[in-house]
Amino acid sequence: MFGLFACATPALAHQALLSLQHRAQEGIALATAHTKLEFKRSCGLLSCAPKDFFTPAPHALGQVLGAHHDFYANNHLAIAFCGNLHHSTTPAKFIAKALDRAQATSLEAKLKEITPTLKGAYAFLLLTPNRLIAVRDPFGYRPLFVGALRSGFALASETYTLQALGVTDIQEIPPATLYTKTGAMLLARPTPRPCVFEAIYFSHPSSVVFGQSVYAMRTKLGQALAQEHPLQADFVVPIPNSGTLAALAYAKELGLDFAPLVSLNPYVGRSFIESTQESRQAKARQKFSLVQEDLKGKDIILIDDSLVRGTTSKVVVQMLKEAGAGRVYLLLSAAPILSPCLWGIDIPAKNELLSAQGGEAAYIGADSVGFLSLNALKAAINAPFCQDCLIPKNKDSHV
């Protein structure tokens, strides 16, 4: 999600949504404000939006839509929401109704009144004809950043987006904070535990999360993987794109040949963030192809960022085996995912998590599967993060 205050143009709004497209691909939403709010929504990728989707306005609020993203707008208020509220399936609308019921007079005071009732993980932006406000939960599960742009300011889920807009003085909005053009207001005692998947998977390599470069963190993950799983093979092959940096670092650490033999179709979106297993499987088959290379009898170390359902890994391993590869070893630059997530990442019920069931190699068709240990993951990230999905639970709940 992004917000532009006193600096919105059609070109900037388009660029902001384009730079966020890797985070969700089911649709886009945009609210613009002058004397009143105007709202538009389009299904699919940004390229599918109608030509008149972007119109001039001094303020704008936009969002890419997918699982755990929600957008609500009426004539005087728009809310872009990322995360999950445990007591609502339409969190943006829930917040709008809670504001209507609040006893306080100013919008800022209303938000301060209702935020203790919001149970879950969230970052959201709120736009009126003359205000743009950001709110982040006490744990900082979902990322949110702000910076100066022309005579106004801009907000976004990633620093990469703000960089693409030409924003200066980029800063992270702290957890438990309400942010307006006049400054920041603390809403509660912050207890930072951001989602580790921002470092592992979601964020663009050019972004900064946990106060660190995503590029540098993924490189550290690959180095740690080489230390824990020093295998030998003919090629180290990444599953693009989120496995590429770890694979490159792994190969360099062990002196092995890095070979990006799996090609990614840039016009097919991420399979993980699809809403159904059928669409995930179809997209995984569509988006990968194998570079024509003599793989007969060649042993492969295949590296990806993480393993959830095993959909992508299974497809790629099958492609390599069909091309004549010998042994295929799958390594993951994250710890095993053992529990579902209730904080706004589409990590499903326990019975859908491959590592919670065991038998990963047999299901995927790999000769072996290895994970980065949780301790090594902690050392590489070197910052507090939420570990709930990496720790086995008896129930599909963390609350």
Uncertain segments: none
The structural domain count equals 2
Strand order of the largest sheet: 3-2-4-1-10-9-11
Mean pLDDT: 92
Instruction: Specify the biggest β-sheet.
Output: 7 strands, antiparallel
Could you name the CATH homologous superfamily of the largest domain?
A: Aminohydrolase, N-terminal nucleophile (Ntn) domain
CATH architecture of the largest domain: 4-Layer Sandwich
Q: Could you say which overall geometry the principal axes of the C-alpha atoms support?
A: elongated
> End-to-end span in angstroms?
26 Å
Helix content: 25-40%
Number of helices: 12
The radius of gyration is 22 Å
Give the tally of β-strands: 21
Residue fraction in strands: 25-35%
Task: Tell me the structural class.
Answer: alpha+beta
What is the CATH T-level topology of the largest domain? Glutamine Phosphoribosylpyrophosphate, subunit 1, domain 1
CATH class of the largest domain: Alpha Beta
Quick description:
This protein has 12 helices and 21 strands. By secondary structure, it is an alpha+beta fold.
Describe this structure in words.
There is one protein chain. Helix content is 27%, strand content 26%. The chain is α+β, with helices and mostly antiparallel strands and 399 residues long. The protein folds into two domains: 2-192, Aminohydrolase, N-terminal nucleophile (Ntn) domain (Glutamine Phosphoribosylpyrophosphate, subunit 1, domain 1); 212-381, Rossmann fold, CATH 3.40.50.2020. Strands 3-2-4-1-10-9-11 form a seven-stranded antiparallel sheet, covered by helices on one side. Helix 1 packs antiparallel against helix 4, helix 6 crosses helix 7 (244-254) and helix 6 (214-228) packs antiparallel against helix 12. The mean pLDDT is 92.
